[in-house]
Amino acid sequence: MRAILLSGGLALVFTLVGTIGAIRFLTTRGYGQLIRDDGPTTHHTKRGTPTMGGAVIILSTVSAYLLATLLTSRLPTASGLLLLFLFLGLGGVGFLDDYIKIAKQRSLGLRSRAKMTGQVLVAILFGLVALQFPDERGQTPASHFISFTRDYMAVTLPTVVVVLLILFMIAATSNAVNLTDGLDGLATGACTMVFGAYTIMNIWQNNQSCELTPGNTCYEVRDPLDLAIVSAALTGACFGFLWWNASPAKIFMGDTGSLALGGALAGLAILTRTELLLIVLGGLFVAQALSVILQVGYFKLTNGRRMFRMAPLHHHFELKGWDEITVVIRFWIITGLCVAGGLGIFYAEWVAGA
């Protein structure tokens, strides 16, 4: 527990303090956000706001995790290192995207094919390695089963299918968080809540692990305590960054942060055997991604008509006249309800089994 508290607290301090330096550094070099001309006109005032702040979240999370393990004399585990690899790998793809936007002064960075290729390579490598490294009880970081709150053992999936499902989850979640990161503090605040939920779930899985408390309701998860340390660092880092990212934002996380955080959410769902539960916990991200899919599909089927005034969904409400801060707070409330619902389902399943 000391490592979890240290990890979260250190990451919070690192982003609170480190973001100040990042804002000065990025402003001095003119690394500012470019704004789409077809978006809400109220966003034009944000042009030039420093971006790539996600690098601070990444560095703070990794530093806090490593320091917490060092100060508590713990060794990193396969699950924790894999989650950090996914986090760093997708953050690297996002960093390239952000840097190209700034260097070439265009609102689109990496070409869609190049961006997706980077995400696919990182996801496939993560999936393949996550099915290796069994512990003394034979548990690998990821499993060959379908999971909601725990593994559903009736169906064993082939390795190829598992890797493809992992690829889909990582691509879908990272892009969904990326789509949500369109208003000051929206994605950061939502991610803080979901990572906080995973910290609680990881602690519970560790306390009820089959190694410690064998029984019908125990959890077969490899390294749940180490995953709790990483998710606590992610929670603290997002919470600290929100101080500077809340409206009016002094800095944006950019694709560097949104892709990395989305990948970490997918990684936690995979490694904690709660893949399908992420649909509930991350309900806001699901709604944002669906709004884009529905908008594009409806546009093609109806020869140019639109289902929403603009997608993703937060822009639709902006164009209806809602203030930006109103959209953000109401979407945070929705995220809070989704997180409460997900945690309730997680605990209720354990109670029913007990």
Say how many strands there are: 2
The main sheet comes to: 2 strands, antiparallel
Low-confidence stretches: none
What is Rg? Answer: 20 Å
| Secondary structure: helix percent | 55-70%
Q: What form results from the Cα inertia axes?
A: globular
Integer average pLDDT: 91
End-to-end distance, in Å?
25 Å
SS-based class: mainly alpha
How many helical stretches?
A: 12
Whole-number total of structural domains: 1
Strand order in the sheet with the most strands: 1-2
SSE order in H/E notation? HHHHEEHHHHHHHH
Provide the β-strand percentage band: under 5%
What's this entry about, in short?
The protein is mainly alpha-helical.
Task: Give a verbal description of the structure.
By secondary structure, the chain is mainly α. It has one domain. It has twelve helices and two strands. It has a two-stranded antiparallel sheet with strand order 1-2. A hairpin with a 3-residue loop joins strand 1 and strand 2. Helix 5 (159-180) packs across helix 10. The longest helix is centred in the C-terminal third of the chain and has 30 residues, at 324-353. The protein is globular and about 55 Å long. The model has no long low-confidence stretch (mean pLDDT 91).
